């Protein structure tokens, strides 16, 4: 008969909203091993599998730290309780945790005070006492005081039937399939998974069932939402009113984000990130929440695995009215599973844009053409080995469906061309990186020459401000004495005068640096590098803090209205680098709001 050899969970810590699918290893009567599901409708060797999930409710309630959700809380902020802030946000695991979080935590109090301004002196007295003496912190957290966090402010509804009670624990059945997705009701509780082999004829268990217990379920960490900042310095309330504001103003938003492919998100590279926060089942939900929350009209993602695009991002974003397009990297260098090859994915909202045309750039093909034209036969193999890196670009031409106010010919189609790329080339191959960027720009020049069309160039260029690729993008040419040009063993960059283009491209985030100093922009300007007019970083790991990501736009036809605020290194690296429990990529997302300039008559 079949027997269960081993059961284990994909993650040590279950998170609300993230699927749990245990790995079940079975032994057949001939001693061979299998791991696939065996339903009652298709038994093997006269047996099938059943699964059950239980929520283990202990008589002793446990509160969860709001900052470190994998830790048990030991103190509670009474200021939050009296201000009627959601109780889950009031818990902390240690005095140091509370102290470190105070700069951000106090904003909860300030917002509560401004939102509910009916308590008069009582509210003043509360916050005054909290700030001056610290007596607003309850450091003797008991089980009865912590119970509120377990329900997240709502009444918990458990199944009527109690499956089993053992000492101080009660087990409630919450699922009967192999996969279970923890809910808010599970926060603070241990889950138990049970797998049993059932006789297909008698429907009775064969042998003992196999069980495994999880750690306590934690809520999905939620970072403070990033604001949209007008380049005039005015903060724009993003999430609630953005759709109506954009519709009425005739502007549109573009998001660019390297989401970190699961194939690269290894414990060896990101040992500082909790293993549960690095798992794809967690990261995909966290990334989706973040991306959908920005409500961008056009979304350009890099490092999207082929299987994740087909099975997750395309169907999930379709639910939010996005049409999806994808270009997988070529696989001449890649030697792994073809389904895990990553690429560039571009999404656009169907109610805002219509698809007109798509172009795909494969730099491997361009490398073949280049070597045929310029490289002697004896060096072709060496040249291709250097140039072929499987990188691609996805170029999409879209037509706006919204009314673009200020256009002097409202009956004319408003098109926009969006390029999305990831120039993933080793740092030492400066010539290859520059050649790929130049190849992309020459292709975009041809599109621009065929139509009066605004250009957007988004992506991860793996090139820092001041490098030759950045200079080419931002200034349209490169100083012949630029040090990056010294690396050119194949002679593909000579003469340097050919490294130019006519597209009037400007980096969107340079708008923060170029605007007059006003109060609303002062904080953002401090997060910019004054020598390059680019963000101080868009990629922040333990070993690498640089800016490889950009949104470039054609300044003759588009203007920047607002930008998603930049994050500061201090807030990102409070406990760790990226990725983290709050932010699921090692890059940060960039988002810009644009307006089309009125066309000049020719």
How would you sum up this structure, described in words?
The chain has 602 residues and is of the alpha+beta class. It is 26% helix and 26% strand. The protein has 16 helices and 29 strands. The protein has an 8-stranded mixed β-sheet, covered by helices on one side. Strands 18-19-20-21-27-22 form a 6-stranded mixed β-sheet. The longest helix is centred in the N-terminal third of the chain and has 21 residues, at 95-115. The radius of gyration is 28 Å and the shape is globular. The model is unreliable at 118-135, 140-161 and 237-241 (pLDDT under 50). Keywords: Cytoplasm, Exonuclease, Hydrolase, Magnesium, Metal-binding, Nuclease, Nucleus, Repeat, RNA-binding, Transcription, Transcription regulation.
Summarize the structure.
The chain is an alpha+beta fold and 602 residues long. Helix content is 26%, strand content 26%. The strands form 7 sheets. The protein has an 8-stranded mixed beta sheet with strand order 13-12-28-29-14-15-17-16, with helices on one face. Strands 18-19-20-21-27-22 form a 6-stranded mixed beta sheet.
List its traits:
alpha+beta; eight-stranded mixed sheet; exonuclease
Structural class: alpha+beta
- End-to-end distance, in Å? 82 Å
The percentage of residues in β strands lies in 25-35%
Rg over CA atoms: 28 Å
Strand order of the largest sheet: 13-12-28-29-14-15-17-16
Number of strands: 29
Write down the overall geometry: globular
Question: What's the main sheet like?
Answer: 8 strands, mixed
Calculate the mean pLDDT score and round it.
85
